[in-house]
Design brief:
By secondary structure, the chain is of the alpha+beta class. It has helices at about 5-45, 55-65, 70-80, 110, 135-140, 170-175, 185-195, 210-220, and strands at about 85, 90-95, 100, 120-130, 145-155, 160-170, 200-210, 225-235, 240-250, 255. Strand 8 and strand 9 form a beta hairpin.
Length: about 260
């Protein structure tokens, strides 16, 4: 290698080092912005900003020991979620809220959200239908036997909140055909019909992408993530009586519970 080549190599190495350092700084700022967004989201959901306006960016930067750029990036993340917006002359304001759904008690949606408004149900379909094999197995009915199938759009104060698909054994479900499903939780009706209290439920919760149909019904962006709650509810004697697949709008509901380590 000639002497004239060596400085050029050193210059190239210096440029590469500068680019790598810049990428590292960007990654670290993105990490910190995400972490700050998680903290601020918690504050939003618990009503920490009663007047609906977040503190100034400089105040947030001081409170959380972050740079102004990191704060702006965190607020951008929350704005992309539809939780906040930037208003000229006002600042960053809360524009949406999520409603709490507990996972440590077995309650219907109207019972769960009674403090936040009125839950109404739009019954989209209802009637007997042959049980798919996984449904028959979980409800302990004969393969291919009819079960009552109900699809409901559930609203809180008029806003679409969830799309529920429910399967109920027909010997119980027949009595629901004339019930007021628009204003009454199925849980309460099941206890009335059977004369027994509900006992326990097995649940699975996961995030799934909404299909075109459910997105349109929930008035959500196509392909938006929804919270899918699968719940199999039993009477107090152990009999399974209600299998549900519930799609919640993820931007309007938050799940919480109290866990004990024993």
């Amino acid at each position: 290698m000639s002497p004239t080549d060596r400085p050029r190599d050193h210059a190239g190495q210096g440029a590469a080092t500068t680019v790598a350092a810049h990428r590292t700084r960007r990654r670290l700022r993105a990490d910190r912005a995400r972490q700050l967004a998680d903290l601020l989201r918690r504050q939003l959901l618990t009503g920490a900003y009663q007047d609906g306006t977040l503190p100034h960016e400089s105040t947030l930067a001081t409170d959380y020991r972050a740079t102004r750029n990191t704060v702006r990036q965190a607020l951008d993340l929350l704005r992309a979620e539809g939780l906040v917006d930037r208003l000229p002359g006002v600042g960053t304001v809360v524009v949406a809220r999520k409603y709490p759904h507990g996972l440590d008690r077995l309650m219907g949606l109207a019972e769960t959200l009674r403090e936040h408004g009125r839950v109404t149900n739009e019954v989209r379909t209802m009637g007997p239908s042959p049980a798919p094999a996984p449904v028959a197995e979980r409800l302990h009915v004969a393969a291919g036997a009819d079960v009552l199938c109900i699809e409901r759009l559930r609203r809180l104060n008029g806003l679409p909140l969830s799309l529920d698909l429910t399967y109920i054994p027909l010997d119980i479900g027949t009595a629901l055909l004339d019930a007021d499903l628009e204003n009454t939780d199925v849980f309460r009706l099941l206890e009335t019909i059977t004369g027994r209290p509900l006992g326990h439920a097995e649940i699975t919760l996961e995030a799934v992408n909404s299909d075109a149909h459910s997105a349109a019904v929930l008035e959500a962006p196509r392909g938006a993530s929804v919270l899918m709650l699968e719940r199999l509810t039993h009477l107090d004697d152990g009999r399974p009586v209600d299998l549900e697949f519930i799609r919640f709008r993820g931007d309007r509901i938050t799940m919480s519970g109290l866990l004990h380590r024993s």
